[in-house]
Amino acid sequence: MIRNSTLLIVFLFCCQFAKASHIVGGDFTYRWIGGNNFELKLKIYRDCYNSQTPFDNTITIGIFDKVTNVSSGTLVMTKQDSSIVTLSGTAACALPADICVLEGTYLDTISLPNNPHGYYIVWERCCRNISVVNINNAFDTGMVFYMEMPDPAFHNSSPAFVNDPLPFICEGQPLSYSFAAADVNGDQLVYELATPLAGNTGYPTTYNITPILPVPLPAPYTPILWAQGFNLANVCGSSSNPMAVDPVTGMLTVTADYAGVYGAAVVIHEFRNGIEIGMVRREIEFAVIVCPNAAPLLNIASALSFSNNTFTIYETDSICFTANATDPTDSVYMHYSGDIFSGGIISPPFATANSDSGLNAAHSYFCWKTQCGQADTVSYNVVYSLSDNGCPFPVIVIDSLKILVKPSPLINSLDLLCITLKDNSATEVFWRNPVLIPSKYFNRFEILRSMNGSPFTLLATIADQSALSYKDSSAIDCMANDYCYFIRGINNCGVAGLTSDTLCTISEINLKTNYMKQVSVTDTNKIEIQWKHFPDGPYSTFQIYRKENSAGADYSLYKTLVHPGYDSWTDEQVFTSSKSYCYYLVNEDYCGNISPMSNEACTILLNGKSGAGENDLSWNYYSTWNGGVQKYEVYRKPVSGTIYSAVTELPGINNSCRDFDLDLHYGQYNYYVKAIENAGSLNGESLSNEITLHQPPNGFLPGAFTPNDDGVNDLWGVTSSFVNTFDLKVFSRWGELVFATASKNDLWDGSFNSKKALQGIYVYTLRYRGFENNNISVKTGFVTLLR
């Protein structure tokens, strides 16, 4: 529901909630009546609750030089009449309680000598109503009635306010009131919301001054002190629509948030030929009251979405909606205006709408079919003025909708893929499927061509937005002549989008060579091939060639990948433990043009053999990287391990190593090699196959020991290397089993049945296995126990 109403303020002069009679505003004006003679008029407004405090019968005003502030005399003015202010627009309604304003008029004539400085005329009077909430200590604050006039030789008359003030506005309702003035001289008038003036009057008990000055005092005149939370930007607590005056029209607007009595002032500056010649002020007080009359509401029903009261469309779009005005208690009157209707700022076609009225509801049907050329960076306005016939006075609400018309969308730049070169008498240009705009904004593609560096000219147009190629049958001898092409899209308003890239037949010979980033053994009998990311991959066909890495082997086409959207492929038809494989790639572009072959990439085949306490490893060099091989890293894990760790690293010129650092407790070791590319290329890495090497087991037993607790040779047992499992038994000469163990860490201390065994010769049997197979080795012999 739209509630950002921006106009409509009823501006008021102030009735007071406290029943006492005080000044609530007024203004000075003057009229030239011939020669140097002028008629001065002062209108004073006050509330009318206390007849014991009437208007002053006479007042003494001061006339001062506008530049020097020197007094030019005084004038005693007599009250001519007083009357209750007629409240325009409320004739059919009973006035709200406590609303009553009296107007007193003081009128006299004066003759002023010519003075190039001009004059200002002033009268001061205290006091304001105690109930004014936005002025600090309002009850003791005076009011200044002030105007400025140019040199009497100008024969000028001041602006005169057209409207009498209204004494109240309704809380929470956006209202407007005109402070426009008439100027018989046709001068330029500029309106301003101003801070009220307190001047020099007040109560003696507070300021040691009087409510009425016996002699007028010259400027400057002290402004009022705003109460806490109020200022010129926040006169009456208006958060959504603060009080403001249009400097051109004098229309004062506000939405007051809280009931109360407030003071303000409006100034009119008078300009002639760009120079300010005069000024009049109107002091005002107004009451914000709770009114029973609710403001009409506007609701927009539309199939189009809108945000912040703004529709956003494109040239050639149509926009239609229904504006519904409702008022639950009164008749509602609905009128439209805006800059897109007939007589506005645009060329046809114009928008259409209707005014309407009705009891509780009115409806306006809006429609506009835009055309090319009506786009703008600034939104168009559609204004709906709603009013009712409620009391205490009709409420006027002005709601504004905005329509932002953007230029018709441009067609995205096309991405040219390739040109066919198979037929030397014709070409065909292919492009990538573009991100399409809605078809209603599309008009055509334009194909432009150049031959051998000549200027580009229009070759053809395509009306089919979904087209992805164009065949040029006039491209004679396209392998020798360099035909260049680009494409641009034209929208429905005839505006060209960004042009595509440019392709030429000579340079379009497919030179987009693939690069093999790495080939690597990733699992048993699996080789992963990775290539540098190829942007045209989804529009190309990759042909993978393979051979065994051996003397005399030839490459053959091994795998075809059609439009791959990925950068790697795994070959699972390999024997990685016995063979190295080499690969290269070529690509066939979307137009069937074949690229040169990529670099060759061959896997690493790792071999090894076991020696006495050492393992010897060798491998073929990885080939080929642009950066070459920086180093090879050798990784190993024992049979009981789960994680490989690096054993050594070697410069890229090495392809073998010998591993001496073997743990005698384990006889099986797994290895692989990693090749790492030199810096400056794509940081490739290639893994070899994994191999397993075994060390032969061995067990040694001493021929004697002396378990006499002297700390030397007290224990006897097996010293083994690369033994997986064993079984040791020791017998006495009578065949008794005196010691047995299956643990390599378990030693005989020379005891039997918890007693010291007898000194002598014993027989042992040792059975053990290594890590490679289940073959059992057996050793028998004698051990001498000495005490």
Summarize this entry quickly.
The protein is 1% helix and 46% strand.
Walkthrough of the structure:
With 787 residues, this protein is mainly β. Helix content is 1%, strand content 46%. The strands form 13 sheets. It has an eight-stranded antiparallel β-barrel. A hairpin with a 2-residue loop joins strand 15 (260-272) and strand 16 (275-289). It starts with 22 loop residues before the first strand and ends with a strand.
- The side-by-side strand order for the widest beta sheet comes to 1-2-5-4-3-6-7-16
How confident overall, as mean pLDDT? 89
β-strand number? 53
User: How would a crystallographer describe the biggest sheet?
Assistant: 8 strands, antiparallel, barrel
Secondary structure: elements and pairs:
Elements lengths: L22 E12 L2 E11 L10 E8 L5 E14 L16 E11 L7 E7 L17 E7 L10 E2 L6 E3 L4 E4 L2 E2 L5 E7 L9 H4 L36 E2 L5 E4 L5 E13 L2 E15 L7 E6 L7 E5 L3 E21 L17 E14 L10 E9 L7 E11 L9 E4 L7 E5 L10 E10 L5 E6 L6 E4 L10 E9 L11 E2 L11 E8 L2 E6 L9 E8 L7 E7 L5 E4 L9 E8 L12 E2 L3 E6 L2 E6 L9 E10 L6 E7 L4 E4 L8 E10 L7 E3 L3 E4 L3 E3 L3 E2 L13 E3 L3 E7 L5 E5 L9 E2 L2 E2 L3 E10 L6 E10 L2
Parallel strand pairs: 9-16, 18-22, 46-53
Antiparallel strand pairs: 1-2, 1-16, 2-5, 3-4, 3-6, 4-5, 6-7, 7-16, 8-11, 10-14, 12-15, 13-14, 15-16, 17-19, 19-20, 19-21, 21-22, 23-24, 24-27, 25-26, 25-28, 28-29, 30-31, 31-34, 32-33, 32-35, 35-36, 37-38, 38-41, 39-40, 39-42, 42-43, 42-44, 45-47, 48-49, 48-52, 50-51, 52-53
